[in-house]
């Protein structure tokens, strides 16, 4: 009996690792679907929202970390098939790093306030706001260092305002998909 329980835990661990690896691949595929502008329009945020809703915040965060590490070592997983540490230290790298905050924020908010749908949506929105803030701060720092002074409103008009509605749509689709198929994938935090 004890051996079966141990094997069951191992299988869960392997399944979790497989889901997290698949999650990293999903983010990469979604990053390749892009429209190149100052900060490329991609489906990365959709993938992160979906993974958070399906796998839970912490497993989704591991998927994001795997994705970032794959790109950092040179695999072309970033938008426009970009790769390398230079992408992460470039103007838009802060938004990629910002994805790491979304899962833990989701976990924190849902542990404090429950897992009702409206709480989950508030948690996703809060995580996105933190991602925007981190990415925008990073963008401004790199832009200032490389190009010159730029105002916050200007950067927001380049890097955040055009993305609010598309990200809201991506979030809504991710929530709908997770509600439809989420029961098939074991949730975790």
Q: How do you describe this structure in short?
A:
With 189 residues, the protein is mostly helical.
Enumerate the spans where pLDDT stays under 50 for 5 or more consecutive residues.
1-10
What's the overall geometry? globular
Mean pLDDT: 90
User: Can you summarize the main beta sheet?
Assistant: 2 strands, antiparallel
Q: Enter the CATH topology name.
A: Arp2/3 complex 21 kDa subunit ARPC3
Compute the separation of the termini in Å.
27 Å
What is the gyration radius calculated from CA atoms?
17 Å
Structural class assignment? mainly alpha
Q: How large a portion of the residues is in β-strands, by DSSP E?
A: under 5%
Number of domains: 1
Per DSSP, the total helix count is: 8
Give the neighbour order of strands across the main sheet. Answer: 1-2
Corresponding CATH architecture? Orthogonal Bundle
In the CATH hierarchy, what is the class? Answer: Mainly Alpha
The count of DSSP E runs of length 2 or more, i.e. the number of strands, is: 2
Order of helices and strands: HEEHHHHHHH
Q: Percent of residues in helical segments? A: over 70%
């Amino acid at each position: 009996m004890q051996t079966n329980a141990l094997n069951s835990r191992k299988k869960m661990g392997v399944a979790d690792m497989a889901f997290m690896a698949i999650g990293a691949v999903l983010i990469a595929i979604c990053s390749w679907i892009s429209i190149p502008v100052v900060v490329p329009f991609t489906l990365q945020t959709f993938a992160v929202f979906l993974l958070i809703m399906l796998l839970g915040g912490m497993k989704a965060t591991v998927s994001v970390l795997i994705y970032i590490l794959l790109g950092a070592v040179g695999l072309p997983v970033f938008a426009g098939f970009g790769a390398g540490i230079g992408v992460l230290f470039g103007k838009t790298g802060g938004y990629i790093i910002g994805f790491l905050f979304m899962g833990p924020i989701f976990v924190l908010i849902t542990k404090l306030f429950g897992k009702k749908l409206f709480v989950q949506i508030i948690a996703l929105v809060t995580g996105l706001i933190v991602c925007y803030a981190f990415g925008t701060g990073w963008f401004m720092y790199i832009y200032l260092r490389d190009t010159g002074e730029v105002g916050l409103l200007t950067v927001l008009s380049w890097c955040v305002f055009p993305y609010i509605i598309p990200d809201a749509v991506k979030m809504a689709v991710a929530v709908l998909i997770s509600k439809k198929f989420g029961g098939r994938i074991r949730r975790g935090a």
